[in-house]
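worker-3 :: picked ABC-2 type transporter
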Amino acid sequence: MGTVWLRLSPVQKDIQSFVNALFFGSAFLSFMAVAYEGANGLYEPLAFVVSNFLIGLLFLFLISILFASVTYGLVGFRSDAIAFFIHVIWLFQDLVAAESLIVLVASLLPNFIVALTLVAFVNARLNVFWRYAFHYIDYQSYVFRGMMVNEFTGRVYQCAGDIGFGCSCAYESDLSDQCKIDGRAVLGYYSYATNRLDTSIGIMIGIVAVYRLLGYLALRFRK
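worker-3 :: tokens ->
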């Protein structure tokens, strides 16, 4: 991924590439490798759910920080230590939510291929109302928003052209007269507020908790 979007610059023509890199990075890590585990009767569903969650946290965090360590600098995201670790936190939450969803689906339908086929079949036939409703419980939408706010808040991008020969700014901001784009203008274009970080993190924790609870209940009733 780092070589696909290599050394992007804070200029207008690279803004969309930054957005694409953020989305692809979060979506790519959501495709987790899944190993089937059969019941052997040695432990209760609650013990499995709790141990699976706690043991997986360290590995998911290592995956997140290793992935970010390679791609963050190659792409050219914000060169700030705090921004880097916030980026890692969002990747980590993305992985935790993805694994929790996989545990739930695998608990309901042990045949994962059938589960994927069923989800794709139903999703293709959802009407507009349900598509918008499910957007609000989609963990990836919160991860993407958090990563966007982390990247574009505080950054300034150069518009096309120059002051002497005329500027062409794709996003209007208070810096347009300087032939520059305030990163918050990009967030405004996507209707992303910069003051909802705590809310988004809280929602992510809630989504993970619900997935794990439903996974436990599914295993409990199948026992």
